[in-house]
Design goal:
With 286 residues, the protein is of the alpha+beta class. The protein has 10 helices and 14 strands. This is Carbon monoxide dehydrogenase.
Length: 286
């Protein structure tokens, strides 16, 4: 199929892009990597009147390290971060499982975050590490934390005239350990369930842990594990049981809610066991 007719603009500055978004409101869409947007347009699932291509915008392809962490501009490709490393272990562990080499070569980190697929890896990584989006509009700038960003499948807290100019992922401390595990039907498919774990481990003991899941709810889900700490298989089983008990999995054409609950329990336990082993191997499937 072919997309519905649309106008195309290729601004060279952020201010020019913001002006276009302000003038066209909800009828404009931003094009960065296009790996999700363009197939939707071809199927006429979305029909923007204006496509704002930000690939020529100065400064959006910049990667840098700030006090807030690793800052990735809106047009930084997933493949570039995968090859160079980010300083955020969970992001580096999850990226090999995002799409395929072909889509990663064009797809952007920020684009995946803004597309807001609840089964995608990168929004869940952002939630697990406590990162956020740097957003600009004609009215000014703001930061949207991951916990406040997602409103539902394909829906974020960004207004139609706002542009996500960068994402920030906190850098790992020396005692940070992380793991990403997921289960999908085929390589390259979105996972039925994905799990990200970030923990502070000292002398083999976890004294702080964050767990987030993809593909379970209609937004990335943070498992309520505040205050849980310990060592060994006992902690891994305890956190896994909390996750399985507290989740309210979706039931859809890809699999059942009951199957997702089993996957949550298994993947959370295995991810924490991996963290406790301080294993540097990236494992991507159950």
């Amino acid at each position: 199929m072919k997309p519905a007719p649309f106008d195309y603009a290729s601004p060279s500055t952020v201010d020019e892009a913001l002006g276009l978004l302000a003038d066209h409101g909800g009828s404009a869409r931003v094009l960065a990597g296009g790996q999700s947007l363009l197939p939707q347009m071809a199927l006429r699932q979305v029909r923007p009147r204006l496509l704002v291509d930000v690939n020529r915008v100065a400064g959006l392809s910049t990667r840098s390290t700030t006090d807030g962490g690793a800052r990735l501009g809106a047009t930084v490709r997933q493949a570039a971060v995968l090859h160079a490393g980010s300083g955020t272990g969970l992001l580096d562990a999850a990226l090999p499982w995002v799409g395929s080499p072909g889509t990663r070569s064009r797809g952007t980190v920020v684009g995946s975050l803004c597309f807001a697929d609840p089964a995608a890896e990168l929004p869940t990584v952002l939630l697990a590490v406590g990162g956020g989006l740097e957003v600009r509009s004609a009215a000014g700038s703001r930061t949207v934390e991951a916990a406040e960003l997602y409103r539902g499948p394909g829906r974020t807290a960004l207004a139609p005239d706002e542009l996500a100019v960068a994402a920030t992922f906190p850098l790992d401390a020396d005692d940070t350990r992380s793991a990403w595990l997921e289960f999908g039907r085929r390589p390259g498919d979105l996972p039925l369930v994905g799990v990200g774990v970030v923990a502070r481990v000292r002398d083999g003991v976890v004294d702080a842990v964050r767990v987030a899941c993809a593909g379970v709810h209609d937004v990335p889900w943070a498992v309520p594990v505040a205050g849980l700490r310990g060592a060994g298989g006992g902690l891994a089983r305890e956190v896994a049981e909390v996750a399985a008990r507290e989740c309210r999995p979706v039931d859809d054409h890809r699999t059942t809610a009951a199957h997702r609950r089993v996957l949550v329990r298994t993947l959370v336990r295995r991810a924490l066991e991996q963290v406790l082993r301080s294993d540097t191997e990236v494992i991507g499937a159950a």
